[in-house]
Design goal:
InterPro entries: Cellulose_Degrad_GH3 (IPR051915), Fn3-like (IPR026891), GH (IPR017853), Glyco_hydro_3_C (IPR002772), Glyco_hydro_3_C_sf (IPR036881), Glyco_hydro_3_N (IPR001764), Glyco_hydro_3_N_sf (IPR036962), Ig-like_fold (IPR013783). Helix content is 29%, strand content 18%. Among the domains are: 130 residues, TIM Barrel (Alpha-Beta Barrel), CATH 3.20.20; 217 residues, Rossmann fold; 114 residues, Immunoglobulins (Immunoglobulin-like), CATH 2.60.40.10. The strands form 10 sheets. It has a 6-stranded mixed β-sheet with strand order 12-19-18-15-13-14, sandwiched between helices. It is an alpha/beta fold. Strand 28 and strand 29 form a beta hairpin.
């Protein structure tokens, strides 16, 4: 049997196997049930396979399982009911072994897991969320993180992940902003390519590689009103130039799987868009992997979008458009056979999807190595090296937004320091959505990090929560003000929470202790399905800060959150402001490192922060327009894209472009000198923007086309060089082709999208050339 011959190509083996399969076996390869429902942990700690899983195998098999080791309130998997790293590898092995031994052809299961910022399993390392990763502007560091995530996940037997998220954020009121890198398509594309390289490694069948699945295809981050899965109003030219760019780059980087988005674009659901899935993805870009739906997306076609009259109609539309696998599997399992019987779909059309899935299984090496390694899982998952990497990423992601009169860094010999706020000692509040349950003491909070940095055991650091995230109670104000009054400076950690109900209860505002009551208390104001109409702090957080300000002490605000916070009063009155996003399990150490100067902040914003929500959308690459302002305000951001301060000072000079005139296919080199004019070493993110001064279609005022993160010692100067050619100058024309037109361009290099040096570049077609 050719399909068992590992010396043959994946394509030939898949062809041979497909020819041996029954209809039920083919359908089985396209379904993906929820994996955590396929086993149960018994009282003695062993794993028992459920009858429902056995029935799936008997009916034709299971192509894939989703989230088998996923642990969170949605799955109901707790620390007590969950599995250790070693046990998780053994559980996947037991499910895989049953499938191989009780199916006619022995086709292995593809286990797919969530790994947005770490494997979503008990014991795995929790890295900063993607919005924080974007703020590092460090693709190589992110690639290292993805290698670590792949090693942890594959060690347990899973071979696919549903990341990276390549959505371009247009409206940060969207609850899934935290899952994205930012608002700029070029930056998203660069980080996405780094994720593909890190997750997939050099070979898909390696012991530390995962099949990456870029999502959500497409324009999911551009929904109406920032509401999750809402309609998208966008023309095809803008779609290609902005939202599709990261996916095109991901495919070029080797992505072999793609997940569709819930939304529709101009009335066509992405799940059944033949234009997206066939014309663009496969025909234009040459993608030859498989496409999977998001969970429940097929059901929306008949009940939601209402573009299908029945389940049979829905699954037939999906297969014909280019869908190959259904996450959750319910619609394919229930309606594919009847759709074939009724003539909605031909078996030849079904075979195309099955073949793509089988081919990837061979490429992943699942037929030769279907199991994980419990011993390796115990060694690599949550390792000290991965914790240190999480700390480094968190340190590079923190953005210093304000630092009046050199308030930061604080001196470590400070007499007393008040640490106040609902996010000062709330472990889950700094992890973000898509996070597993955590054992006590594993997460380093802001309070933990500060106490560790000062070597304090409760004498110099005075803590009080003051208030909660969403509650208006001010019962904790007196204790917080008492602590602050006795201190020399105040660090107040506020913001948001994407923490689902992990059974931690609420915070006692008088003692700061966690109190579990019979009523679930959720502070959640961000995350999937939690969209907002405003971006201000909720509850009594702003009044707390205003009361603390009256004490006249140095006031440092630390934002821990999953989307930008818009609080003009804080921007004006705080002495220093740190934006930490959700910094992950080592976030407390990283924040303390910045507060005390052990880490010079180098994070830069990847989303523009408006002065008020009424300015939205405020992303920096707005098109040229005669509209200059609202009656009440202009459209300039409070903190622009790319912005971030440092404890040192960087100066830019001697910008030049050589040559100053090139042809449409030519290339120029851009040189800029960057000097550390301060007293401490630091890292600067040097950003390149291009402005097309006149074009055949309306163009943005400027677009990011390059960046480099450099380290400079005090007094050191470095010449930063960028190449500018077709990729940096082209745009999508009216006919949807990518073109470079003759004309004048401004080349801008600086520390952010609002501050830069400018030089000219001319593109001119030589006479007689084409």
């Amino acid at each position: 049997m050719d399909y068992k011959n590992k010396l043959l190509s994946a394509g030939r083996r898949a062809d041979d196997l497909l020819g041996r399969m029954t209809l039920d076996e083919k359908i089985g390869q396209l379904v993906q049930p929820f994996g955590w429902k396929c086993f149960e942990k018994t009282a003695d700690g062993s794993v028992e396979i459920t009858d429902s899983f056995k029935e799936h195998i008997a009916r034709g098999g299971v192509g894939s399982l989703y989230g088998t080791l996923r642990a969170d309130p949605w799955t109901g998997v707790t620390l007590a009911a969950g599995l250790s790293p070693e046990e998780g590898a053994e559980a996947l092995g037991k499910l895989q072994r049953y499938a191989l031994e009780h199916s006619r052809l022995g086709i292995p299961i593809l286990f797919g897991e969530e790994c947005s910022h770490g494997h979503m399993a008990i014991g795995a390392t929790v890295f900063p969320v993607p919005l924080a990763i974007g703020s590092t502007w460090n693709p190589e560091l992110y690639r290292s993180m993805c290698r670590a995530v792949a090693a942890e996940t594959r060690s347990q037997g899973a071979a696919a992940t549903y990341s990276p998220v390549l959505d371009v954020v247009r409206d940060p009121r969207w609850g899934r902003t935290e899952e994205c890198y930012g608002e700029d398509p070029y930056l998203v594309a660069e980080l996405g390519a780094a994720a593909i390289a890190g997750l997939q490694g050099e070979r898909l069948d390696a012991a530390d590689s995962l099949l990456a699945t870029p999502k959500h295809f497409a324009a999911y981050g551009s929904s109406e009103g920032g509401r999750n899965a809402q309609t998208v109003h966008m023309g095809p030219r803008e779609l290609h130039e902005v939202d599709l760019l990261p996916f095109r780059k991901a495919v070029a980087a080797g992505a072999r799987s793609v997940m569709t988005a819930y939304n529709e674009i101009d009335g066509v659901p992405c799940t059944t868009s033949r234009y997206l899935l066939q014309d663009v993805l496969r025909d234009e870009w040459g993608f030859d992997g498989f496409v999977i739906t998001d969970c429940g997306a097929l059901g929306m076609l008949a009940s939601g979008h209402n573009t299908a009259e029945s389940g049979e109609d829905a699954v037939a539309q999906a297969i014909r458009a280019g869908i190959d696998m259904e996450m959750s599997g319910e619609m394919f399992r229930e309606h594919l056979r009847s759709a074939l019987s009724a003539g909605w779909l031909s078996e030849a059309e079904l075979d195309k999807a099955v073949l793509r899935v089988l081919k990837l299984k061979f490429e992943l090496g699942l037929f030769e190595r279907p199991y994980g390694d419990p011993a390796r899982a115990g060694e690599v998952i949550g390792s000290a090296a991965h914790r240190e990497l999480a700390r480094q990423i968190a340190g590079e992601s923190i953005v210093l937004l304000k630092n009046e009169r050199g308030t930061l860094p604080l001196r470590k010999d400070i007499r007393k320091l008040a640490v106040i706020g609902p996010n000062a000692n709330a472990a889950y509040n700094q992890l973000g959505d898509y996070t597993s349950p955590q054992p006590p003491g594993r997460i380093v909070t802001v309070l933990d990090g500060i106490c560790s940095a000062l070597g304090d055991e409760g004498e110099r650091v005075l803590y009080a929560p003051g208030c909660r995230i969403r509650d208006d109670s001010r019962a904790g104000f007196p204790r917080a003000l008492e602590c602050a009054a006795a201190a020399d400076a105040i660090v107040v950690a506020v913001g948001g929470s994407s923490a689902r109900d992990f059974g931690e209860g609420t915070i006692d505002l008088l003692t700061g202790a966690s109190v579990v009551t019979e009523h679930a208390w959720s502070e959640m104001e961000c995350g999937e399905g939690i969209d907002r109409a405003t971006l201000n702090l909720l509850g009594a957080q702003l009044p707390l800060i205003q009361e603390l300000r009256k004490l006249g002490k140095p006031l440092i605000v630390v934002y821990i959150n999953g989307r930008p916070i818009v609080e003009p009063w804080i921007s004006e009155h705080a002495d220093a402001i740190l934006e930490a996003w959700y910094p992950g399990q080592e976030g407390g150490h990283a924040i303390a490192g910045v507060l005390f100067g052990d880490v010079n902040p180098s994070g830069r914003l990847t989303v523009s922060v408006p002065k008020q929500v009424g300015q939205l959308p405020v992303y920096y690459y707005h098109r040229r327009t005669r509209g200059k302002r609202y009656l009440e305000t202009d459209f300039k951001a409070e903190y622009p894209f790319g912005f971030g301060l440092s404890y040192t000072k960087f100066e830019y000079g001697n910008l030049r472009v050589e040559p100053a005139v090139i042809g449409p296919g030519g290339q120029a080199r851009v040189y800029a000198e960057v000097t550390n004019a301060g007293d401490s070493a630091g890292m600067e993110v040097v950003q390149l923007y291009i402005s097309d001064l006149a074009a055949s279609v309306t163009r943005p005022e400027k677009m990011l086309k390059g960046f480099q993160k450099i380290s400079l010692a005090p007094g050191e100067t470095q010449t930063v060089v960028f190449n500018v050619g077709r990729e940096q100058l082209e745009f999508v024309g009216a006919d949807l082709s990518r073109i470079v037109e003759d004309g004048e361009f401004n080349v801008m290099v600086g520390p952010n999208s609002a501050e830069y040096l400018t030089a000219g570049l001319t593109v001119r077609t030589e006479r007689g050339s084409s």
